[in-house]
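Here is the promised in-class demo. Please do not try to memorize the tokens; focus on the logic of going from shape to residues.
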């Protein structure tokens, strides 16, 4: 006989418990969220409208920006709204939906970053075959595979969580619903589920990270035979990718490649990869990429010219 599911809603303890700091946090995270949406939207519009950014790399970059925008939107609006709410509640169904979307979009980004590393590997290590390998069909299929992989991962995480009995308490010491905080509230032994979560989430993050590191090492080794100009351009692009990989995968591995325990640093680490990283990605890719900056200038000049006419 299955235990009765008594919990119909969860209470989120939130990010900031100091009432004096809550208005400051509200303004800070509102500005971060607006900058994230506008920054990623700018990249999407620039890539879509620029005739100079038609290579597969920018095709993947536009999808990464879309994923980042979605990823931030899953957690940031609820976090922002809760700063002025004394009782921060979320329904059981809403909590499970949020958990599903966080893992769906987050895992999709993991696979997309891996795909982008593969694209750079082909472009730098096999330049003569690049256009024949990275066709439009292949690029579209890789993006679709990233979404499907993220969906499968998230379904597994959600099913592992939703089948657990929740009889109370219902207070989640976090600002959004995630697997580890929910496992602590289940009215049963969650050791096996915790192990499966580590295998599912942690190993995906670790394996993809190792694959990314190996691919960029191979790229760096192959650059030794290139001209100084070709080496400089390739290094500039790869450095941007490596920076994004490190700031995204580091917190993920810290959060999910460990037993279902909580640390005082968890909330800040989670803020970094759910809210800060989606903002940093467009900054990193635009500030270190002359082609994107030039395309933005031309797009902006064209809009101004059309506006004057």
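The designed amino acids, position by position:
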């Amino acid at each position: 006989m299955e235990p009765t599911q008594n919990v119909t809603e969860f209470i989120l303890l939130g990010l900031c418990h100091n009432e004096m700091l809550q208005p400051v946090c509200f303004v800070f995270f509102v500005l971060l969220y607006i900058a994230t949406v506008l920054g990623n939207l700018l990249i999407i519009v620039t890539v879509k409208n620029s005739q100079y950014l038609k290579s597969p790399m920018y095709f993947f970059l536009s999808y990464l920006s879309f994923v980042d925008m979605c990823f931030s939107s899953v957690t940031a609006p609820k976090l922002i709204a809760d700063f002025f709410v004394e009782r921060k509640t979320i329904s059981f169904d809403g909590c499970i939906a949020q958990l599903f979307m966080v893992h769906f979009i987050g895992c999709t980004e993991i696979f997309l970053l891996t795909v982008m590393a593969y694209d750079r590997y082909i472009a730098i290590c096999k330049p003569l075959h690049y256009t024949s390998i990275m066709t439009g069909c292949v690029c579209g299929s890789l993006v679709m595979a990233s979404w499907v992989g993220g969906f499968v991962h998230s379904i597994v995480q959600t099913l592992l969580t939703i089948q657990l009995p929740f009889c109370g308490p219902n207070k989640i010491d976090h600002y959004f619903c995630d697997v580890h905080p929910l496992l602590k509230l289940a009215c049963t032994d969650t050791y096996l589920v915790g192990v499966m979560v580590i295998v599912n989430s942690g190993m995906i993050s670790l394996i993809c990270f190792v694959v990314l590191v190996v691919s960029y090492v191979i790229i760096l080794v192959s650059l030794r035979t290139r001209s100084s100009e070709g080496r400089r351009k390739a290094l500039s692009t790869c450095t941007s990718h490596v920076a994004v990989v490190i700031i995204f995968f580091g917190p993920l591995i810290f959060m999910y490649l460990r037993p279902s325990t909580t640390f005082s640093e968890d909330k800040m680490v989670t803020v970094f990869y759910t809210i800060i990283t989606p903002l940093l990605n467009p900054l990193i890719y635009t500030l270190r990429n002359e082609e994107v900056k030039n395309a933005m200038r031309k797009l902006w000049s064209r809009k101004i010219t059309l506006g004057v006419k």
